[in-house]
Amino acid sequence: MSKRESAAISRRKDSSPVHGQTAADETPNHLVYKKMQELINKMQEECAGVPVKTVKSFISKIPSVFTGTDLISWMLKNLDVDDQMEALHLAHLMAAHGYLFPIDDHVLTVKADGTYYRFQTPYFWPTNCWEPENTDYAVYLCKRTMQNKTRLELADYEAENLARLQKMFSRKWEFIFMQAEAQSKVDKKRDKLERKVLDSQERAFWDVHRPVPGCVNTTEADIRKACRLNKSSKTAKIGYAVAGGRISPSISESDLNPIDSLQKQIACLTQRLSRRNIKISKVAESYIGHFEQYTEYDPLLSAPDLPNPWISESPDYWDSEKNLKELSPKRVKRWAFSLAELLQDPAGREQFAKFLDKEFSGENLRFWEACHELKRVAKKDVKHHVFEIWEEFLAGNAHNPINIDSKAAMAVAKNMQNPDLYTFDEAAEHIYYLMKNDSYARYLRSEMYKELLCGAKKKPAKLMIKFRSMSIGGIGSISG
């Protein structure tokens, strides 16, 4: 261990004296870490441990390494392990948790061959309860790009993660770059062999916390263990989210059931496409327009033309409903809001029926009315009324045939095999669509509607003149 690492560990312990106890005790895997740490300490003993050596190659030296064969042999000799596969499995678990690592591979596994491995420094052990953030990872990757070394080149998944992090921290990327540049300058001042060891240990640390896609992330806490201990797993990061998805997803998410995950993703994207996105400003404009249009028809905001018969003794409202010839301008004006407003008013429906009869398409409105009246028929009489509507509007020798498209005609023919209240729904919807887009637009432009609108506006003026003449005559008679 170097002086820098020991000083960093001591500062860490001094700054948080209870950190090593409270945080570690809250981690469900603390007992496993403790056993692995004891085993690693035995492996690192100078006399009875795994033989660590510096290997001389043709060009350079590889410091502080051991082979997978030496590691497995030591485990078979010093541990209660008889099978080589069991020893390999135990070594693989220790590598996956970051206690030892291969010097030339991002995948933390152990092989019983001449591959070189190195022990991780205690500064990066899981028992220190590290909680690395995405900003730390961004600084590390940025620093790697500054070092012109073949062994420090970014892998494909690391380059993708760097691009995502750069997009995520675009506002403070300059600060991250400056921090990475400062760390890179400090690293260059170290001894060459020491720098090589520290670089590999730092890379192994991030291979544990940001593993290669497809590898298990051992830093995730098992929720079942956390529930059994009745403690929250605050020290364990469930996921490190970045824009565009998680960095280096674990095998439990995507690789175990790739078909299911893809189907869920397709369903989610399809649902997003079907959802209609509207700006709040547009919604506000539509609400304001609707409010302004119906303000004069709201009895709470505007005084009605005729008093409410339920709270007054005046029968004028009922008399006006009986006499549909005298129409107020406000009432006629409302017909132009929509076809639904026109058909909702008995006087409007009567005038619209007269207009359709002039255009030889009155059967459309009569069919639509018959379909609506069918919904109010008693269940025992439904079949009879369905056949009456069929004979009058849709049969081959119908008295008032209507024109509907082939899709609606096929749907009605299929529903006639088992007639019910909803037999003609598709045909009625088609006829309503035709009236709304064709007949209703022509009616609003017709002279018939304009005469009604102008006549309704002139009648109040005539009544006012008549009332004034009557009042003047009455005053004259009184004076006489």
Q: What's this entry about, in short?
A:
This protein has 22 helices and six strands.
What attributes does this structure have?
disordered C terminus; elongated; mainly alpha; 480 residues
Mean pLDDT level? 79
Biggest sheet strand order reads 1-2-4-3
Question: Can you summarize the main beta sheet?
Answer: 4 strands, antiparallel
Order of helices and strands: HHHEEHHEEHHHHHEEHHHHHHHHHHHH
What is the first-to-last residue Cα distance? 126 Å
Any low-confidence stretches, pLDDT <50, length ≥5?
A: 1-24, 231-253, 460-480
* SS element count, helices: 22
Task: Using the CA coordinates, give the radius of gyration.
Answer: 42 Å
Class based on secondary structure composition and strand pairing: mainly alpha
Helix percentage range = 55-70%
- Beta-strand portion reads under 5%
β-strand number:
6
The coarse silhouette is elongated
Describe this protein's structure.
There is one protein chain. It is built from 22 helices and six strands. The protein has helices spanning 3-15, 19-26, 30-43, 68-78, 84-96, 134-146, 156-168, 173-188, 192-209, 223-228, 251-254, 258-274, 280-294, 316-322, 329-334, 339-344, 346-358, 362-374, 382-394, 406-415, 425-445, 447-479, and strands at residues 53-56, 61-67, 100-102, 116-119, 241-242, 245-246. The strands form two sheets. It has a four-stranded antiparallel beta sheet. Mean pLDDT is 79; it is low at 1-24, 231-253 and 460-480.
How are the SSEs ordered, and which strands pair?
Elements: H1 3-15, H2 19-26, H3 30-43, E1 53-56, E2 61-67, H4 68-78, H5 84-96, E3 100-102, E4 116-119, H6 134-146, H7 156-168, H8 173-188, H9 192-209, H10 223-228, E5 241-242, E6 245-246, H11 251-254, H12 258-274, H13 280-294, H14 316-322, H15 329-334, H16 339-344, H17 346-358, H18 362-374, H19 382-394, H20 406-415, H21 425-445, H22 447-479
Antiparallel strand pairs: 1-2, 2-4, 3-4, 5-6
